[in-house]
Design a protein that fits this description.
By secondary structure, this protein is mainly α. The chain has one domain. The radius of gyration is 20 Å and the shape is rod-shaped.
């Protein structure tokens, strides 16, 4: 969801900048950049989702639920 919101907000910002810039300035969101942001977002989500889950799976259930802060 965060990636979709980021892409949408980027598109909105580009539309605003293009509108304010006048006739000679026209910005657009390239598909390659969108794909890079999607892949990057998925990578971060997978890495920071699997690591804690893997760490908790190796513990006893009560230890995994205990908050050490």
């Amino acid at each position: 969801m965060g990636c979709a919101v980021g892409i949408f907000l980027s598109w909105v910002a580009l539309q605003i900048i293009s509108g304010v810039g006048g006739e000679g300035m026209n910005y657009s969101l390239r598909l390659g950049v969108v794909w890079i942001s999607i892949v990057f977002s998925m990578g971060i989500g997978i890495i920071f989702g699997i690591y804690p889950a893997n760490k908790a799976a190796k513990k006893q259930p009560i230890e995994a639920l205990r908050y050490v802060g």
